[in-house]
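Methods: holo model generation. Sequences were used as deposited, without trimming of termini or removal of tags, and paired with ligand SMILES retrieved from the corresponding compound records. Each pair was processed once, and we did not select among multiple samples. The sequence and zinc ion SMILES for this entry were:
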Amino acid sequence: MKRARPTPQPARLLARLEENGFRLTPQRRHVYQVLLSRPDHPTADEVFLRAKREMPEISMATVYNTLDALVQSKLVRLVNHDRGATRYCSNMRPHHHFCCDVCGAAFDIDEQPGWRLPSLDVPGGFQADRCEIVVRGRCPRCARPGPARRR
Ligand SMILES: [Zn+2]
Ligand SMILES: [Zn+2]
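and the model returned the structure below.
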């Protein structure tokens, strides 16, 4: 579960927005930068709060619309685990997630080289392309003894 990532190249990646028919506005550029600068799977509300710090005039609607454009352009992916709000992940390399049952946060787990799809008995007619594993438990913050840190 390493935190270090190769430096992303926003300019090259952002060209994908235009390839997918989305206009490259300063707001969209900013929201994407916000996601890249802290890849901790924020919710849409958290992205909005962070985006507002440097761009106070940005609206929640613009943030939603941009997140949608980024997902459709495959620059960001959705992380949906059964409890809590949808989160946004800007790490597009193959990886899995550790999901904290207490605070609901999601953390990246990089795929080990040579990792392969587990041999599952996929029913006939279905074609498996990938497999995402969700490991559940408590993150280091929530695993520490002390008062519960639900949010
Ligand atoms: Zn936690
Ligand atoms: Zn992730």
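The first strand starts at residue 77 and ends at 79.
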